[in-house]
Amino acid sequence: xxxxxxxxxxxxxxxxxxxxxxxxxxxxxxxxxxxxxxxxxxxxxxxxxxxxxxxxxxxxxxxxxxxxxxxxxxxxxxxxxxxxxxxxxxxxxxxxxxxxxxxxxxxxxxxxxxxxxxxxxxxxxxxxxxxxxxxxxxxxxxxxxxxxxxxxxxxxxxxxxxxxxxxxxxxxxxxxxxxxxxxxxxxxxxxxxxxxxxxxxxxxxxxxxxxxxxxxxxxxxxxxxxxxxxxxxxxxxxxxxx
Length: 242
Description:
The chain is an all-alpha fold.
């Protein structure tokens, strides 16, 4: 009897062709695992099981990849609001944006590092601008208010992420980290730092939701007089045209 070595004559299954959606989603997963510093074309290619050169068929460079990732994260945020009134609508959108940024590691830094491009991200910008314009703000005030609102929310979420990372690196809870901050301010010489020592508990108060709401109220309160002034001057003009 002749012994014939076993050979598997079946053809190995072909890998499904990579597309841009898979590349971007893989990059978002890498962001959650490694953070923004861990995003590179080489690292993403390794995660996807391909050569780095093959990624450039779908994205031009790392900058475009980051922009596409920001647009992908924007898809998780509903941009249509149910609230009545411009203040309530702005608050609803702000809270949704903050919560979306909290769901992904370094998401706030990613948003801050990329331009507002991509259809899904631009829909959010459009929604905010419409609310501000419908509230009666001038074109300039609406554009500037949207800019500052975005910066406030993004930086607030980034600061939350930084604090969480600091606590994690130190091996303590957020509550413990805040307590350490209070102790540091209390230990300062009161004669040199009377305000810091007096407000130690308030400065390190562990109430991020309350702090976020306070910032939103400040922003919206600042817009209210400008909105009222413009709508008040617009009413007589409309009446005169009649």
